[in-house]
TrEMBL record:
It is found in: Cell membrane. It comes from the Bacteria. InterPro entries: AAA+_ATPase, ABC1_TM_dom, ABC1_TM_sf, ABC_transporter-like_ATP-bd, ABC_transporter-like_CS, P-loop_NTPase, Type_1_exporter. This is ABC transporter ATP-binding protein. Residues 567-584, 592-607 have a biased composition (Low complexity). The keyword NAD does not apply. Keywords: ATP-binding, Hydrolase, Membrane, Nucleotide-binding, Transmembrane, Transmembrane helix. It holds the Pfam family ABC_tran. The lineage of its organism: Bacteria, Bacillati, Actinomycetota, Actinomycetes, Kitasatosporales. Residues 44-331 form the ABC transmembrane type-1 domain.
Length: 616
């Protein structure tokens, strides 16, 4: 199995080194802004220490030159040192001060780094949660999101590397100044020897990063195989289905693809870096050769050559650190670029609908007209030409085969998805123009795949939004959903943690979880209630309880009930007293296909013949 790489990967592959280098300042300034937002004092301390350390490096090297001149030029070294005592003291103070300030700068960077990671990650979370729900159906969004999470993690490295780079670059600048003062020909040689090394390091980083991008889809696939093989949710099926060998084979297959791609990239990167290092070795040899030549031809005094040799060594060490830190910074900035890229990819998906508000006591009526919907990247619409009306106090049942579009329609009626064409209006307000937070605050949804929140039982029902009366309301909702017995059996009642993978966490059965999921919808005192197969995992008694309560619960609410209960044609049928007809596909709408007549909540329980009218 192979996942297609998305536009995101291709766009990254096409980025040239020059293009990325041009974007580097922007990426760095983004990191600086992040740092500034998270801890200004640490940023200021970092800057002050860095500037101070640079000034002290220059001072120390200038003092070094004077001390070395005293040592090499005079016959009496001790006398020379005594005469230049100030330079010796300055050298000692500047050198130790520089180490101190360097350590302070590193400490400030270390303090800043985790905060920057947190802030960058929060930006990813904010962008993801602000995006339209349908964005999650777009593979590019998913790939960009995966890459962004890595990128956010690297923000900390970026700050540490930036500190290291500026520190090394300051040392280099100071040493290079001294070398230039001693003899102007040495500096160009130094530069020539470092350029190939820098080129190799940067080019190698780009090759490896491009491979990382090509591997993104496979990396995700492998981690899915890994988690499906080992996680608790799937552990029983893995064993009962004797799937372990198959999953391990798939894991190996994807891993070998990943490793082959990685190996190819590493070979290329090593080759490029090797060429750069070899050229640098030639340049270094030339630098030393020129120094020897200058001394042997009498164009440079031995004392000056000694100082130059020291400065060249310092420069070389600083250059090596600068190149290493620069290459790492470059690689990190590529990851940070992924982070920034996700924010850019997510931006157009940001929910921006309009300021229209639904009346405080609304919606009284939900009207869908000619609604069609196609998932991003899908070849055919999931819904086509659906029209219906749903009033407060009515229950509408969406019935149809698997894949007929019931869940999609339910999400469109609540405004979770916007139709590709047609409109959904609440009291005449098009949901495409309505403030989504305000509209969704009027919706309670029991999704098909409800979440087992690793929280206390109370928060699993209130979703962190307790009603003014507190626990009595929680118990009332639990009672309506048949979850009161579940809570009563918990060791600490509503305070019991349901984070089953943690110590002290309590586990529930599938049906018990579903009762909680239904209770959470009942707890939300809102006018629109959507239940997507809410009784699939319930026993007959619990199902009966929900159905018998539904009438009371639907009182004053617009309720959508999704079920596959009836044997019906391939399209879902919307049944309610006011339904105009719903048909997700070209297939026709209709109530006529339903075995139960359309009805509203008021006629619902009285016309039932079985405990579950949806499953005759
Ligand atoms: N993320 C997606 N991307 C592309 N197509 C999708 C996506 N999700 C659903 N579909 C397609 O949309 C159609 C309707 O799906 P939907 O989940 O609404 O059906 P359903 O009637 O609720 O099915 P079920 O009874 O199995 O829950 C299906 O054909 C499905 O393949």
């Amino acid at each position: 199995m192979r996942l297609a790489s998305g536009r995101h990967v291709e766009a990254s592959d096409n980025l040239s080194t020059a293009a990325i280098a041009r974007r580097l300042p922007r990426t760095l300034s983004q990191a600086a802004r992040l740092g500034w937002r998270t801890d200004r004092r640490a940023v200021l301390a970092l800057l002050a220490c860095q500037i101070g350390a640079t000034a002290l490096t220059v001072t120390a090297l200038a003092a070094t030159a004077r001390v070395l001149a005293a040592v090499f030029t005079g016959d009496d070294i001790a006398a020379g040192l005594r005469e230049n005592l100030t330079a010796v003291v300055v050298l000692a103070l500047a050198a130790s001060g520089r180490y101190l300030l360097d350590a302070c700068a590193r400490a400030a960077a270390a303090r800043l780094a985790p905060k920057a990671v947190r802030e960058a990650d929060l930006e990813v979370i904010t962008a993801a949660t602000a995006a339209e729900l349908v964005a999650y159906e777009d593979p590019d969004f998913a790939d960009a999101h995966a890459a962004a999470s890595d990128g956010a993690e690297k923000t900390g490295d970026l700050i540490l590397d930036a500190q290291l780079l500026t520190s090394a670059a300051a040392q280099l600048a100071a040493a290079a100044t001294v070398v230039t003062v001693l003899h102007p020909v040495v500096l160009p040689l130094l530069v020539l020897s470092v350029v190939p090394c820098a080129w190799g390091a940067v080019r190698g980083a780009r090759i490896e990063h491009a491979a990382h991008h090509r591997n993104l889809a496979d990396s995700r696939l492998r981690s899915v195989f890994r988690s499906y093989s080992t996680e608790r949710n799937t552990a029983d099926e893995v064993r009962a289905g004797t799937m372990a060998a198959f999953l391990i084979r798939q894991y190996r297959l994807v891993s070998s693809r990943l490793e082959a791609e990685q190996l190819r990239a590493t070979r290329q990167a090593l080759m490029v870096q090797g060429i750069g290092d070899a050229l640098t070795a030639v340049g270094t040899a030339a630098t030393w050769g020129v120094l020897v030549l200058l001394v042997s031809s009498g164009r440079m005094e031995l004392a000056v050559a000694g100082t130059a040799a020291l400065a060249v060594r310092t420069s070389m060490a600083a250059l090596a650190t600068t190149v290493r830190a620069g290459a790492r910074l470059f690689r990190t900035s590529l990851s940070l670029d992924d982070w920034a890229r996700f924010l850019a990819v997510a931006k157009p998906w940001t929910t921006r609908r309009g300021p229209a508000l639904i009346a405080e006591d609304g919606p009284q009526v939900i009207t869908a007209r000619d609604v069609s919907f196609t998932y991003p990247g899908a070849y055919r619409p999931a819904l086509e030409g659906v029209s219906l009306d749903l009033k407060r106090g009515e229950v509408i049942a969406l019935v149809g085969e698997n894949g007929a579009g019931k869940s999609t329609l339910a999400r469109i009626l609540t405004g979770l998805y916007l139709p590709t064409s047609g409109s959904v209006r609440w009291d005449g307000v098009d949901l495409a123009d309505a403030d989504p937070d305000e509209a969704l605050s009027k919706v309670a949804l029991v999704p098909q795949d409800y979440t087992r929140w690793p929280l206390a039982a109370r928060e699993n029902i209130t979703l962190g939004q307790p009603r003014p009366d507190g626990d009595p309301d929680v118990h009332a909702a639990a009672e309506a959903a048949g979850a009161d017995g579940v809570i009563a059996a918990l060791p600490h009642g509503l305070d019991t943690s349901l984070a089953r993978s943690w110590w002290g966490g309590h586990d529930l059965s599938g049906g018990q979880w579903q009762r909680l999921a239904v209770a959470r919808a009942f707890h939300r005192d809102v006018p629109v209630l959507v239940m997507d197969e809410p009784t699939a995992a319930l026993d007959a008694r619990a199902e009966h309880r929900i159905y018998t309560r539904l009438r009371a619960l639907a009182e004053g609410r617009a309720t959508v009930f999704v079920t596959i209960g009836w044997p019906t044609p391939a399209s879902p049928t919307a049944s309610s007293s006011s339904t105009k007809g719903a048909s997700p596909r070209p297939a026709p709408s209709t109530n006529s296909s339903a075995k139960e007549p359309p009805r509203s909540s008021s006629s619902y329980s009285s016309s039932r013949k079985t405990d579950s009218p949806w499953r005759p």
